[in-house]
């Protein structure tokens, strides 16, 4: 079970907004990212022909928030706290708002934070900022690891295919079948890890913080993925167990 979030709160880079007394006042407009499709003229065709690039752009999310401070003397202090809290240093960080508590977004804050004075007897300090949001958000339950000791069925509850992480414990030549599609590995020694994230696409082993590349042991051309709905996972070879994260995802 995942935590029920209080109205107005949010998690940002694994820190809770309540820790510095900050809350979302208003969720402003969100500009949805789009799938990139190039429209081309083709000789002999009376209409433009779509060339699907197979990826999406980021969306933009504007948030209006406030922080509670005990006195005017704390104004500059809280502005510094908020600025540090929302500084993503040019990298994607996790974000979960109270209005969508079951998902984790990947966001970058690459714009200035606008502070707008104070309001009310409790000294609520209003501020607003804008986030660049990666095209997909991830269901929290899909990030929880699961372990299987024999062939199994696994449901992808989202409408988009997922790019899972798998850790296969076993020895020798191993073939894992996802919905009948083989993923072939050779000379596995104790365990091997497969990351199907399209930004990573690596086969490796991590032991005591040391990562060893194992891409040469992957014979298949493509990495495994889980289709929407039920997926059947089977294997051939000396496999003790498979640990995985489904990474169920939806459009952000």
Question: What's the total number of strands?
Answer: 19
The proportion of residues forming helix, as a percent range, comes to under 10%
Cα Rg: 23 Å
Identify low-pLDDT runs. none
Q: Which geometry do the CA atoms define? A: globular
Give a nutshell description of this structure.
The chain is built from 1 helix and 19 strands.
Give an account of the 3D structure.
- It is a single chain.
- The chain has one helix at residues 75-85, and strands at residues 10-12, 15-16, 22-31, 35-40, 49-56, 59-68, 93-97, 103-108, 114-115, 124-133, 136-139, 146-148, 152-156, 165-178, 181-195, 202-207, 210-213, 229-245, 249-251.
- The protein is mainly β.
- Strands 1, 2, 3, 6, 7, 8, 9, 10, 11 and 19 form a ten-stranded antiparallel β-sheet that branches. Strands 12, 13, 14, 15, 16, 17 and 18 form a seven-stranded antiparallel β-sheet that branches. Strands 4-5 form a two-stranded antiparallel ribbon.
- A hairpin with a 2-residue loop joins strand 14 and strand 15 (181-195).
- The two termini are 22 Å apart.
- The relative contact order is 0.17.
Key attributes of the depicted protein:
252 residues, mainly beta, 10-stranded antiparallel sheet, 7-stranded antiparallel sheet, globular
List the helices and strands and how they pair.
Blueprint: E1 10-12, E2 15-16, E3 22-31, E4 35-40, E5 49-56, E6 59-68, H1 75-85, E7 93-97, E8 103-108, E9 114-115, E10 124-133, E11 136-139, E12 146-148, E13 152-156, E14 165-178, E15 181-195, E16 202-207, E17 210-213, E18 229-245, E19 249-251
Antiparallel strand pairs: 1-2, 1-7, 3-6, 4-5, 6-10, 7-8, 8-10, 8-11, 9-10, 11-19, 12-18, 13-18, 14-15, 14-18, 15-16, 16-17
